[in-house]
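Exercise 7.
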Amino acid sequence: MEFNYLTKRLNQLLAQDYVAFSSTKNPVIQILHQTSSAQIAYVMQQYSIFPKELVCLTDLARHKALVTGWNGVAQELTENIAEEMGSTTQGIPHYTLLAQGLEEGLGVPVKNTIPSIATSKLLTTLQLLFAQQLTYVLGATYAIEATSIPELSLIAQLVEWLLEGAMPQDLAYFFNKHLNEWEIEHETDLRTAVAAYIQPEQFTEFEAGFRAMINAMELWWQELAQEAISFNTPFNTCNF
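Solution. The predicted structure, written as tokens, is:
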């Protein structure tokens, strides 16, 4: 089985077996009419922590690739990290673009958000996943890239719901560049880089890492929805 066939099959699983990345079935989308704007803003605050942590996780994968001698993969991950840290955005990290845009649009603090129980659990799980051997870790890394467009489309949908379509310029730029350029390139280039090294006997381990990452995200979104329902806002600075 060719590697591209494997990744195509794994991408198909996202729509067939998981709801976290669905614009209609995502657990938070499902509760929109049961929650307040402040409760959905809480979800946005918690989500902002995830892209902030991705740089560290990607660097772990990059280091493992270097140690193993998969230099092409390491180079691709190095370029991804550089881009996330602002190589194409005048030195402004992508996380900062997102956080500042959310703060501007939603009128709530974002940059210093403390992880909730659900988010803390996710971060602990991810540290365990990325402590595994290279092929497994690359499966998890590829899962992040494969889900980035549907997930960011979902985040944009939630932000537009909160702001009734009045998207701040920074956020509009963030979503436009990720959805139409950056994430498409990241997925394609990482898949191509890994294909040059991975052997058929390693496909099972790659898939295990992919599935573990998706399962962790699926659970996180379910638990974020539960937290949102019980959330009572400690601030009164919302713009809505």
